[in-house]
Design brief:
The structure is a single chain. By secondary structure, this protein is of the alpha/beta class. The chain is 45% helix and 16% strand. It folds into two domains: 5-246, TIM Barrel (Alpha-Beta Barrel); 250-291, no CATH class. The chain contains twelve helices and twelve strands. Strands 7-4-3-2-1-10-9-8 form an eight-stranded parallel sheet. A two-stranded antiparallel ribbon has the order 5-6. α9 runs parallel beside α10 (236-245) and α11 crosses α12 (280-291). It is globular, with a radius of gyration of 20 Å. The chain starts with a strand and ends with a helix. It holds the Pfam family HpcH_HpaI. Substrate binds at residues 67, 135. InterPro entries: Aldolase/citrate-lyase_domain, Citrate_lyase_beta/mcl1/mcl2, Pyrv/PenolPyrv_kinase-like_dom, Pyrv_kinase-like_dom_sf.
């Protein structure tokens, strides 16, 4: 499944929720954590919303996740019960794969008790997990284990909570706008851990929603690094993100040329294309571009 855009919506904001499926985001995240003060109101609103869109979702391609509260605190079990009609859960502040294995056990028990499985075309679809895997120092050190956790289909990263735990005075260089080294490291290891585990890598948020050029620049960088998608905070970011992640005509033409030439030769030896030597890694990358 495509997860280019993973878009947050406050779980207690009815006007925003009413427009969620029309945003054309690949994944919608109904937030019950940071953006919701009154958790009970948020849970009631999300539960009502999920019931109201059950039929609509049969003809809508958007994946719907619920961001629960941290597994180390209170309230997450109630969040999970509320989200049983969703496709799965975004899990914040995860610190180990063991936490995800515990959550998997809870989900199995709840699914058996309530039989709230999503059924698409007669196929039972279990809940998926998308952890935010760099929000504490321990999480960064355990990220490979987190990425390999049960039900995990993608991981993403965040630096604001980590910055607070580290006592940092910010996350970016004020002059260049680039991440400080420790946070760029988190971005890098998120990508590496995801690919090593065979799951998708989702780039973190771009905090300044009014900085259109900055968002586009960071999104393009994420694409070229190898990320599969990016978190979004504002609806206007979604269409731009999709445009950036779509291969350009030139990129697609080059990828098709390389795939065709490589397969015509039966994958034997290197070949030259536009003055460059093409080997197996270039072919593999070109196949991924064509697949998009």
């Amino acid at each position: 499944r495509l997860r280019r855009s993973v878009h947050f919506i406050p779980g207690d904001n009815r006007p925003f929720l009413s427009k969620a499926l029309s945003l054309n985001a690949d994944t919608i995240v109904l937030d019950l954590e940071d953006s919701v003060k009154d958790k009970e109101v948020g849970r009631a609103t999300v539960a009502e919303y999920l019931e109201s869109i059950a039929e609509l979702r049969r003809n809508n391609g958007s994946e719907v996740l619920v961001r629960i509260n941290p597994l180390s605190g209170e309230g997450w079990r109630e969040d999970v019960r509320v989200g049983l009609l969703s496709d799965g859960f975004m899990v914040p502040k995860v610190e180990s794969g063991e936490e995800l294995r515990m959550l998997d056990d809870v989900l199995k028990e709840l699914e058996q008790q309530h039989h709230h499985h999503n059924v698409v075309g007669g196929i039972i679809k279990p809940k998926v997990l998308l952890p935010i895997a760099t929000e504490t120092p321990a999480a960064v050190l355990n990220i490979a284990d987190i990425a390999k956790g049960p039900r995990v289909v993608a991981i993403t990263w965040g630096c604001e909570d980590l910055s607070a735990e580290l006592g940092s005075y910010g996350t970016r260089n004020a002059d260049s706008g680039e991440y400080f080294g420790i946070f760029q490291h988190c971005r890098n290891v998120c990508l590496l851990a995801a690919k090593a585990a065979g799951v998708q890598a989702i780039d973190g948020i771009y905090q300044n929603v009014r900085d259109v050029k900055g968002f586009e620049k960071e999104t393009r960088e994420a694409k070229y690094m190898g990320f599969d998608g990016k978190l979004t905070l504002h609806p206007d970011q979604i269409s731009m993100l999709h445009r950036v992640f779509e291969p350009t005509k030139e990129e697609l033409q080059e990828a098709n040329d390389i795939v065709g030439m490589w397969e015509e030769r039966g994958g034997k030896g290197s070949l030259e294309y536009k003055g460059k030597m093409i080997d197996l890694p270039h072919y593999v990358r070109a196949k991924k571009v064509v697949a998009r």
